[in-house]
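We read letters as residues; the fold follows as tokens. Both lines appear below.
***
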Amino acid sequence: MSRTGRRLLIGGGVIFVACAGFVGWLMANAGQFRTIEAGGSAVCTPVGGVVGAEDIVADVARQQAFVSIDDRRATMAGAPLRGRIALIDLTQSPPVPRDVTPPVPEAFHPHGVSLWTDPETGARSLFVVNHLEGGVPTAGMTRVEIFGVAEDGSLDHRGGVIGGEMNSPNDVLAVGPNSFYFSNDHGSETYLGFMLESFLMLPRANVVFYDGKEFRRVADGIAFANGLGLSPDGRLLHVAETTGFAVRTYRRDPDSGRLELAWTTPAPNGVDNIDMMPDGSMLVAGHPHLLDFLAHTADAAELSPSEVIRVVPGDGASTVETLLTDPGGLISGASVATHAGPGRFLVGSVFEEKLLDCRQR
């Protein structure tokens, strides 16, 4: 073999080893080597009438739950449908989702949702991340909509907030009548940067605070910032770090909105949305196999395992309890688990045509 041939052979070998190493690294960090079996302490019943129930927020006092619905497969197929907010009466058995979407805004593709209750008057407001064009979040094309909530659950559009810091909003966390936090799940503004950030699991995402007048970035260096949750006393803010397989906990200054990283809790899956329990613990739904979730995104027939965990915050020593693990047959791509009363939670997903009504045994 000539010298040139040997160089080409060695070079090709090096490239092959590097590619194989990257694939192995990606699969390991995406959780692909973990075996997923059905398990947990919950019994779940499917509830139809929803498509792509990516996020759910419950008003346990009123026995209501609001479901963010968007048919993302229709959008990907080039035939987008207007998204919806559905209301679930938690006293019904079985529950039947009811459309409560107002006619405004006309362009409506809801993502994360948050419910705020005025501590003095008890008035409710529903905050919704709205991707105006659907599909992949685009800088300058996402708005946080604010709806007033009547006692019967009907919604009244009160306005929206849009700004330059809204690069890739995913979830929203309301903390006042016009103030909120939101997670930018990516820091990149180009499609190439978006993809590199996702597959290399780069910590470029962030959390932004809007005080009713101005935007201020309050947390950086997060690997896909996703769901947000606030402790009952308002002093701890939790951020789901999806590709980091962790929940970050920040100490929060309620007056200024500033955040300071306190500790990070490793999770067994690519955590998605966070819902707070009355005792300050968290319900977190996630994707044990991130690459399976990508395959499920492209093809509904490809199942994506789902998992629901309960995280009990502790200063540097949080505990994690598994409530539900499913290979994907019960529900694929679970993105949210929402507390719906003692021993009960609702599970939604990004693409499925159902949600789950679960009760712990």
Notes: The longest strand covers residues 110-117. The chain has a mean pLDDT of 93. Helices lie at 3-29, 72-76, 191-199, 290-298. The chain has four helices and 25 strands.
